[in-house]
Amino acid sequence: MARRVTAPLAACGLLAALAACSGDSGGKTDASPEPGTERIRTVVQLSELCSGIGDGHPEAARYSGDGPHRTAVFRSGYRTDKDVTTGTVLQERVSFEGLPDLSKTTPVSEIELLACGKGERGEERERDCEYAESGRLDPQESYPMYSQTFTYTVYELRTGRVVDTITRTPQPQCPSKIGYRQGGSGTPDKVYAQISDREASQVLKQVVEGPAR
Questions:
Q1: What one-character DSSP code corresponds to residue 43?
Q2: Cα–Cα distance measured from residue 86 to residue 145, given in angstroms and rounded to the nearest whole number
Q3: What is the four-CA torsion angle of 104, 8, 28, 162, rounded to 10 degrees?
Q4: Within its chain, how far is the Cα of 198 from the centroid?
Q5: CA atoms within 13 A on the CB side of 66
């Protein structure tokens, strides 16, 4: 049976539940085929459009006028060097001034913009991340953390038009949890920096809160 490790003690000080390296549950991989839009009714289902938005979603809100513009933000990226896919997950805690918080069940008809962030693994060593096995408080594993650059492509959801592309190498932040039971090929040798919801909010602030482009 494969051994598992969980939350980084240095990053948050608390133990977290196991997460597979391939991403959070419900995420789609970059290899997903371009979907139709008929069955995409809620925000969480918009993750499929990050792998191929096509002509957009005809039921989305019209993108026009002054901001802020209600935006669904997703992120895909690597946790470890043994990941074979990058799970696409909704960044639910991304927030913008003047906009209500989103939930997974928010209707597509309320969304104007779709922001899809994709991670690219870097070569710069940032720090070490310590992890403990579930149920133990003392550090059991330590992994070097390397940089990861995220590029957010912001789409007009109704048409699929690219509104902006923004690249950011985030502040060093250990993955909240790692595992190597599935989605990988063995024990990781390194982990990669993550972008927090707060930093994603700062990256997207100008395009979301500003007038339509």
A1: G
A2: 17
A3: 80
A4: 12
A5: 1
The counts of H helices and E strands in the chain are 2, 6
**Smallest Cα–Cα separation from 26: which of 90, 75, 103?**
90
Percent of the chain as helix, strand, coil, to the nearest 5: 15, 30, 60
Query: Is the pTM of the predicted complex or chain greater than 0.90?
Result: no
DSSP H helical segments within 3-152, as ranges?
Answer: 9-12
Q: Give the amino acid at 81.
A: D
3-state DSSP assignment of residue 133: coil
SS3 6: coil
CA-wise closest residue to 32 among 71, 77, 82, 86: 86
At 37 the three-state DSSP class reads coil
Whether the per-residue pLDDT at 53 is higher than 70: the answer is yes
Distances (CA, A) of 154 to 5, 19, 42, 73, 173: 34, 28, 18, 9, 24
pLDDT at 71 over 80: yes
Asked whether 140 and 133 are in contact (CB, 8 A), the reply is: yes
The residue count for the chain: 213
